[in-house]
Automatic annotation (TrEMBL):
Domain GST C-terminal: 87-201
InterPro entries registered for this protein in UniProt: Glutathione-S-Trfase_C-like (IPR010987), Glutathione-S-Trfase_C_sf (IPR036282), Glutathione_S-Trfase (IPR040079), Glutathione_S-Trfase_N (IPR004045), GST_C (IPR004046), Thioredoxin-like_sf (IPR036249)
Gene Ontology MF terms: transferase activity
Gene3D superfamilies given in the database record: 1.20.1050.10, Glutaredoxin (3.40.30.10)
Ranges of residues in domain GST N-terminal: 1-81
Protein name as catalogued: Glutathione S-transferase domain-containing protein
CDD domains: GST_C_Beta, GST_N_Beta
Coiled-coil segments on the chain, per record: none
Amino acid sequence: MKLYYTPGTCAFAPHTVANELGIKLDLVKVDLGKKTTSDGKNFLDINPKGYVPALELDDGRILTEGPAISLYLADLHPEKNLAHKCGTFERAEVTSWLSYISTELHKNFSPLYAPASSDTEKQAARDKLAKRFALVEQTLEKASYLVSNQFSAADAYLFTVLGWCDHLGIALDKFPSIQRYIEELTQRESIIAAKAAEKAG
């Protein structure tokens, strides 16, 4: 399988999930500005949405959207419990967190990266993120991970978006549990390997 990615983006989450599962992905780097891939293809022919990640299966089918890719990969090895068994409360919790991270965290980073955003819009985004982080902090005060106190696909996604805070100068001093979470996950082998692969690519 091929994972189309751009360094520093949300594609890092399914990449981490694959590493956790021992799934070797062929990584194809995407220039999002030019919409071209490192192997010379027009990325829009692969994903008309124009953004990463995209997963190309061995039969040529394409799956897009990070949470969907992470769940698909996790279900290839259900014994690892990275998304828990379908039909269980824990699976619903993982899905709930993936949705929350996507709509309430990831989405609110967008104005901070958009050149056209005004200072007012950027501050509003920072204020929203602070409120959302407070809820995450409450969860991590009681557990090391988001669901059933074990690493899941939701943690791979949360770690990814939290990683953007440092680049954007967003202080997390008010959220000690989040800071602890980041420090601990930074030492996780799957994350170290994903970072190394992105750097090498």
